[in-house]
Amino acid sequence: MDIRRRIDSARNLTPTESQMAQVVLGMGDRLQSISIKEFARAANVSIASVHRFCKKIGLEGFKELKIEVARSVAQGDRNPEVDINFPFGPKEPAARIVPQMRSVYEATVRDTCEALDIEMLEHATRLLGRARHIGIYTQSHNLHPAQMFCDRLLSVGRDAFCHQDVERQYRSALALDEQDAAVFISYSGLAPDINRKLALLTERHVPIVYIGTAAARRRHPGLDAYLLVSDREHLQERITQFASHISVQFVLDILFSCVFAADYDACSAFVKRALPYTHLPVPAE
């Protein structure tokens, strides 16, 4: 995982550890030439604090931190990053926009793969696999990929719904319980009424799979499973929601694939049973 992603995904960093993170990112490749004692002095912390920080971001110690930073710097040199928020400028030709947008997709998918926790993904798959009903909750531009995900679940025999109307969302949530599951999608965790909806689902003991950024996870702790997405898109200073749409769609495709694979025979059988009712008409000669 990229060092920036490690830091952003770390849970419960103290103010001192957040300060160390900024020093690490600010030093970049210069970190390679200093000792742990020199780094501690530069960050104004103790050597023990440096060790705790490394553990919190999933590394064994300062030596491994230096290796990860060097790898991130080298990766950046080989693959200069596109501006996720403004991937093209005024009057740019199509010949320029095409490779820039390809880079947006590549960077977003790569970041999302690094952020995804496989154990969490497997847990989320089990929650949906045993759920009687699956409610999918989101709004705005995330409704389109959410409704596609819902349709795919229905296509393999899973009882799923995704309401756009807010009143229907609340009523459907009130009908769920611990035998069901909810998929909640909010990139930033700042969607209107999100706290009230999550509280309602939690009070009903509904297992919740949350899809969003590491910052959203910190805003809404204590849920059953978190599937993290790329988090480099600015919430306001952007052309549009390119990266957040790509990352949410990618995670939903992965989650559906895992649900299908976990019960492959039953899902395949349902698809075959549905074919006489859903196949396209044969064109006349």
Description:
The chain has 285 residues and is α/β, with parallel strands linked by helices. It folds into 2 domains: 3-80, Arc Repressor Mutant, subunit A, CATH 1.10.10; 115-277, Glucose-6-phosphate isomerase like protein, domain 1 (Rossmann fold). It contains 13 helices and 5 strands. It has helices spanning 3-9, 15-27, 36-43, 47-56, 62-78, 94-115, 118-129, 143-155, 166-175, 194-203, 214-219, 242-262, 264-278, and strands spanning 134-137, 160-161, 181-185, 208-212, 225-228. Strand 1, helix 8 (143-155) and strand 2 form a beta-alpha-beta unit. Helix 7 packs across helix 12 (242-262). The chain is globular, with a radius of gyration of 22 Å. It starts with a helix and ends in a 7-residue tail after the last helix.
Helix content: 55-70%
Based on secondary structure, the structural category is alpha/beta
The rounded distance between the terminal residues' Cα atoms is 55 Å
Number of strands: 5
Strand content: 5-15%
The number of distinct helices, counting runs of at least 4 residues, comes to: 13
Largest sheet report: 5 strands, parallel
Integer-rounded radius of gyration: 22 Å
Q: What is the CATH level 1 assignment of the largest domain?
A: Alpha Beta
- The stretches of 5 or more residues where confidence is low (pLDDT under 50) are none
Would you tell me which CATH topology of the largest domain applies? Rossmann fold
Assembly state of the chains shown? single chain
User: What's the arrangement of strands in the largest beta sheet?
Assistant: 2-1-3-4-5
Q: Using the alpha-carbon principal axes, give the shape.
A: globular
CATH architecture of the largest domain: 3-Layer(aba) Sandwich
Secondary-structure element pattern, one letter each: HHHHHHHEHEHEHEHEHH
**Overall average residue pLDDT:** 91
What's the CATH H-level homologous superfamily of the largest domain?
Answer: Glucose-6-phosphate isomerase like protein, domain 1
Q: List the domain count as a whole number.
A: 2
